[in-house]
Specification:
alpha/beta, 2 domains, 14 helices, D-Maltodextrin-Binding Protein, domain 2, 35% helix
Length: 385
């Protein structure tokens, strides 16, 4: 696959005034398979040591290391962001910072942190996965109030990725229950993105005026059409794009745009009539940072995600900035619902979509207990072969 996969455990090092890019690596995902990856880019020499940003700093501090445990599709974003943050932290705090990355299905990542994988911060696909870490006693109550926008510095939504020309004429959620359509989506038991997919589909059928029993019947049909139920969103993209499986990929918006960018002319994005506002959530892992003495840098790391520089970087990697003014810079003014190429002016966000959010489902605790726990509604409609 042409994509420069970013290693699930990638280390970014800022030497004294110099940011050094990492080489190739591999990592085990949540199901134990090894995924090859490459780091992209390298930094440039920093000659700004006398700039006003370093004013008042008397001497260089000891180097510090932190670990960010994140979900599948953020590999490219955090490879770029970690360089940006390391440069910022060096200039403002005169301290080298090394950031180790871990990526995988969001639910599996949360479970690993809860079971002992040391993370200074988590940047997961949804609040419910961060709750799993909190429930393990590692994150304090009230973490969603610690940072702006309910600790969600960027958002996304769910779209369809189809092959060029849309040969199966897939335009909305009801097309996914036709018997001639093969679907690729991750597993809601392990993937945060898959849970967003599921809830967006549920919302569509609900808006059609169906009863819960009728919705469940349609959801069962939809999941019977699933060709591959991967453990994470990146694995699902690989199944669709690299392995040529299925007719449609239910995808994070950023994953779909990356495929469009890297395979011009081969895929199209279809924006359905309704979807869901996906709110990835970030948090400091209090137990770890207090033990390691990394609270200051971990806090700075998450706070800087809201800076103008980081917000624009997030948009460049096809995440929706939480800063409304910066988001408007990337809004694509169109009535079209099929996107065949990346707009040359960089404006890619389509806002003419009916987006529900997790509050419609009573919040993540209620949604998880109703739909995704063992014995929940998802288990009632899908049985692994």
């Amino acid at each position: 696959m042409k994509r420069k996969w970013i290693a699930a455990v990638a280390v970014l090092v800022l030497a004294t005034g110099v940011l050094t890019g990492c080489g190739n690596g591999s990592s085990a995902d949540t199901d134990g398979k090894t995924q090859q990856a490459q780091e992209a880019g390298s930094g440039e020499e920093d000659t700004s040591g006398t700039e006003k940003e370093t004013a008042g700093t008397e001497e260089e501090k000891e180097p510090v290391e932190i670990t960010n445990v994140s979900y599948d599709p953020t590999r490219e974003l955090y490879a770029a962001y970690n360089k940006l943050f390391a440069d910022y932290w060096k200039k403002t705090e005169n301290q080298e910072v090394t950031i180790t990355q871990s990526h995988g299905g969001s639910g599996g990542q949360a479970l690993q942190v809860a079971n002992g994988l040391e993370a200074d911060v988590v940047t997961l696909a949804l609040e419910g996965d961060v709750d799993a870490v909190k429930d393990a006693g590692l994150i304090e109550e009230g973490y969603t109030s610690e940072f702006d926008k309910d600790s969600s510095p960027y958002t996304s939504t769910i779209v369809f990725l189809v092959r060029s020309g849309n040969p199966k004429k897939i335009y909305d959620w009801d097309d996914l229950i036709r018997d001639d359509v093969g679907i690729i989506t991750p597993n809601p038991k392990t993937s945060g993105g898959a849970r967003w997919n599921y809830l967006a589909a549920w919302y569509y059928f609900e808006k059609e005026g169906l009863s819960e029993d009728e919705i469940l019947k349609n959801m069962e049909t939809l999941y019977k059409n699933v060709v591959v139920l991967d453990s994470g969103a990146r694995g699902a993209t690989t199944s669709f794009v690299e392995n040529g499986q299925g007719d449609v990929l239910l995808a994070w918006e950023n994953e779909a745009f990356l495929s469009l960018k890297e395979y011009p002319g081969e895929y199209e994005i279809v924006v359905p009539s309704v979807s869901i506002l996906c709110q990835p959530t970030v948090a400091i892992v209090d137990e770890v940072v207090d033990d390691r003495g990394t609270r200051d840098v971990a806090t700075g790391y998450l706070e800087y995600l809201y800076s103008d520089e980081a917000q624009r970087l997030e948009a460049e990697w096809y995440y929706r900035p939480s800063n409304e003014d910066i988001l408007k810079e990337f809004v694509y003014d169109t009535e079209e619902t099929t996107i065949k190429e990346i707009p040359e002016d960089g404006k890619w966000i389509i806002n003419n979509v009916d987006l529900t959010d997790i509050n419609h489902f009573g919040g993540w605790t209620e949604a998880l207990n109703k739909h995704f726990v063992d014995g929940g509604l998802f288990d009632s409609i899908y049985e692994e072969e």
